[in-house]
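In this section we walk through a basic example: taking a raw amino acid sequence and producing a predicted 3D structure, encoded as discrete structure tokens. The instruction is simple. Fold the sequence below.
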Amino acid sequence: MRTTSTWSTAIGMAGLIALAGCEGESVPEPDAPEEPQSRAAVLPPVEVGEGDGLPDQLPADLVWETNEEDPIFASPDAKRGGTFRTFMLSFPLTIRRVGPDSNGAFAGVLRYNQLSPVTHHPETRRPIPSLATHWAFGADGRSMYYRLNPAARWSDGVPVTADDYVYAVQFMRSKEIVAPWYNNYYTERIRDVKRYDDLTFGIQGADRKPLGEMHSLYAFGPVPRHFHEPRLTADWVKETNWEIEPNTGPYQISKIDKGKFIELTRKPDWWGDGTRYYRYRFNPDKVRLRVIRDVNVAYQHFLKGELDSFSLVLPQFWHDKAVGEPYDKGYIAKYWFYNELPTAAGMYLNSSDPLLADQHIRFGLAHALNFDRVINTVLRGDYARLQAFQAGFGDYDNRGIEARAFDIDKANAYFDEAGFSERDGEGIRVKDGQRLSLRITYGQPHHTERLVILQEEARKAGVDLGLQLLDSASSFKAMREKKHQIAYMAWNASGLAPGFWEHFHSVNAGKTQTNNLTNHANPEVDELIMAYRGSTDYEERTALARRLAQMVHDSGVVIPTFKVPFTREGAWRWVKLPDWLGTRTTGTLFNAQSMSAGLYSNGGLLWLDLDEKERTLDAMDEGVAFDPVTVVNTAYH
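The resulting token sequence is shown next.
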């Protein structure tokens, strides 16, 4: 019996939470609008201090740049058409891009379709056009100017203009969106934005920066004024929870069945189709994200041909499950592709917890966790231990840091120092009747096997680790609300330089809806973070970043876990890729959408060969085999 095709990507597997592409800092919130709740808020103009800000007139001496010279990285052989379907492990709590509960895994899908003025080429890492065709740097070392592509349109056909950038700052500073991170960032880090004509605007950041990092630190995307202005009341969060916001990318949400699936449809006349770096990309007509709450169940759907592709990064999938007739007969191909991407993954210890407030407990726990056993057993030796909180930023990395290794003697010494020197009948340490019991919150079922090993090994040191598995959206919500003791997760690290403010500055400690999951607060670290953010000298910035990484390590609030310098995926033979498969910064091969809302323009390289699909399904019906396909690409290894 013939089956139908669908697809899967790392949305259902990777468990990475997409961050905003830049940092922010805390400032007093703007005054609440005086408008009644039933009326839209009248947002104030963007204001800066006297004598500060962008010039009223566009500087005449600007040197405008563009980049139409770097190589195209999509395939001219790509074909349009078909429905490319994926799965997600949980349904999103909202489709808003900002505000409460908006920073879950599905946020990445939304951000892929909200483009920035420029992005970066995934191979050369140079700026390339996106919404803007040209850019220039101001003489003050902290200003950028952009000229928008006159063809750029929102989903509803309204032109993208400089007014949408001015409104973006007003919107992101407003209290109505209930988004402290954005309020802070767009007030303190984005100091000014000015419209010069419909297609020309300027952005001024808070500090001078190396020119090579200016776009990644200060550039931001527009906000559709015509959509949000009438809706921006005190009830905005509730009333826009499931409102489909116009976007600038190739796909738009077209159907929502709550709890079951979300479907996106490609815009047939998308304005970006003719541009150099978006050509031959984003080829399926539709993208369908279906909720399948168990990864093993999802894999069964994949084997039935109900999912077009599937992440095989997990060792048990690549080594044990990706075998048998569909692979032997060449119906499904296997791909192992090495990449060069920043990594941030770990156990984030909530230092406001009475137990974890003690540094001796944090250090003892780090030495009680046997990550090497996890790597050598469950992970088959494929992964490696991550040595610091984050890595992969070149000169910014502190390569002298070594993660605390499994050492029962050291763990025992630290726990004794903390006063947990006695054990109960189960071998768990106690102090004044309190057991040394800690809870790990996580959001991916396939992590359970790893955590069980860590749990077993930790008992040797007298630690009782409880495992709290929630669905991915609920787990991240609990972490952001600081309802965890230990948060086990990975971040989608991006940018040309590492970020510290959102994770470790004290202004984000003790607050919900911030990414300081450890509630870390240290005045000396705060001072260095602000110096790092304010530095314009590359050597000074890299030195400060290395020092900050050391201080984070010394605090013990993060226990680094694993790094995976590759992606592994399976796909039915009708899902095609360029001969080179992906780029230096490709995180997922079978991603139908762009990732240009982040630092690099990636994704959207695949296409569906519907004729090949018909041939494959006929061959399966008739028992005809193809040559098996396993591709290992080590170009970036």
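Looking at the output, two observations stand out. The chain is about 25% helix and 20% strand. Residues 1-38 have pLDDT under 50 and may be disordered. In the next section we compare this with other chains.
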